[in-house]
Amino acid sequence: MKENIGIVGAGICGLSSALALSKHDNSITIYERDSAPPAGSPDEAFFDWSRRGAAQFRHPHAFLGVMCNLLQENYPELVQKLWEAGARKISFEEMVPDELKKAYVPQPDDKQMWLLMCRRATMESVLRKYVEEIPSITILSKHEVVAPEFELRDSTISLQGLQVRENRGPVRSVSHDLIVDASGRNSKFPKWLGDLGATISEEREDAEIVYYTKHYQLKKRSE
Ligand SMILES: Cc1cc2nc3c(=O)[nH]c(=O)nc-3n(C[C@H](O)[C@H](O)[C@H](O)COP(=O)(O)OP(=O)(O)OC[C@H]3O[C@@H](n4cnc5c(N)ncnc54)[C@H](O)[C@@H]3O)c2cc1C
């Protein structure tokens, strides 16, 4: 059945969800609070795209094996576009530390354990452009979801739609058959649904990773 789907957030999860759901002839609208990327290359996105919703936007990112294989199998043209934009493939063998290299015996499954690495700005702008070109998907930038539209019957919450504000303007209601919350780790949905009586449990783990990034630019020959 063709569904009218609303997705909150055009980060990696929102864009990927739209990509997967578009295969089933659904009509999809993504609401994203931030502005649209500038026209042009991923380099321009890196310097000029105001991406307040993803604080890690200028850090390098890597897609891990599961995601890489999934993309390669289902969306090879997207992976090709990432290579063309400068992403690099790192094989498992390349990741083996020098001190273990001598003892390393390749296993057949190691081929599945590759990484796709690039700046998040590259990853996101290439993915977004690819998703935007799918006719059944519409991305509405500068559209903030401010509340859910719901019906409460016999203590069952049924989400009917969303309250959306464009560019901090007046709030309007939009209806959807299905809503996907892809608004990231600061999602307000647990609170909104909790206020209506739903119990939503959340698990948090400290990643114990801190990283700093420094970017260099190669000098052009004429400089
Ligand atoms: C420093 C750092 C490095 C990382 N490196 C990697 C890595 O190398 N590989 C990897 O796989 N993961 C990495 N991660 C994790 C990865 O970035 C997150 O898992 C990923 O961004 C989650 O995607 P998401 O789409 O759920 O959320 P987000 O990327 O946070 O996107 C949420 C989107 O929703 C929008 N939004 C929020 N609220 C609303 C609203 N009310 N209305 C409309 N829009 C809204 C935001 O503007 C944003 O665009 C890293 C994270 C950090 C912090």
Secondary-structure topology with pairs:
Layout: E1 4-8, H1 12-21, E2 27-31, H2 42-48, E3 60-63, H3 65-74, H4 76-84, E4 88-90, H5 92-95, H6 98-101, E5 115-119, H7 120-132, E6 137-140, E7 143-153, E8 156-166, E9 171-175, E10 178-181, H8 189-195
The protein binds flavin-adenine dinucleotide.
Q: Characteristics of this structure?
A:
three-stranded antiparallel sheet, 26% strand, four-stranded parallel sheet, alpha/beta, globular, 223 residues, single chain, FAD/NAD(P)-binding domain, 10 strands, binds flavin-adenine dinucleotide
Q: What general outline do the C-alpha atoms trace?
A: globular
Would you tell me the overall average pLDDT?
93
Supply Rg: 20 Å
Q: Helical proportion?
A: 25-40%
Helices, by number, come to 8
CATH architectural category: 3-Layer(bba) Sandwich
Bound molecules: flavin-adenine dinucleotide
CATH class: Alpha Beta
Strand content: 25-35%
Following the backbone from N to C, one meets helices and strands in this order, namely EHEHEHHEHHEHEEEEEH
CATH topology: FAD/NAD(P)-binding domain
The total beta strand count reads: 10
Biggest sheet record: 4 strands, parallel
- CATH-assigned homologous superfamily: FAD/NAD(P)-binding domain
Roughly how many Å apart are the termini?
59 Å
Q: What is the SS-derived class?
A: alpha/beta
Q: Give the spatial strand order of the biggest sheet.
A: 6-2-1-10
Question: Uncertain segments of ≥5 residues (pLDDT<50)?
Answer: none
Q: How many distinct folded domains? A: 1
Task: Please explain how this structure is put together.
By secondary structure, the protein is an alpha/beta fold. It has one domain (4-195): FAD/NAD(P)-binding domain, CATH 3.50.50.60. It has 8 helices and 10 strands. It has helices at residues 12-21, 42-48, 65-74, 76-84, 92-95, 98-101, 120-132, 189-195, and strands at residues 4-8, 27-31, 60-63, 88-90, 115-119, 137-140, 143-153, 156-166, 171-175, 178-181. Strand 8 (156-166) and strand 9 (171-175) form a beta hairpin. Helix 1 packs parallel to helix 7 (120-132) and helix 3 crosses helix 4. The protein is globular. The structure holds flavin-adenine dinucleotide. Residues 8-14, 31-34, 53-54, 56, 59, 61-63, 144-145, 182-184 line the site of flavin-adenine dinucleotide.
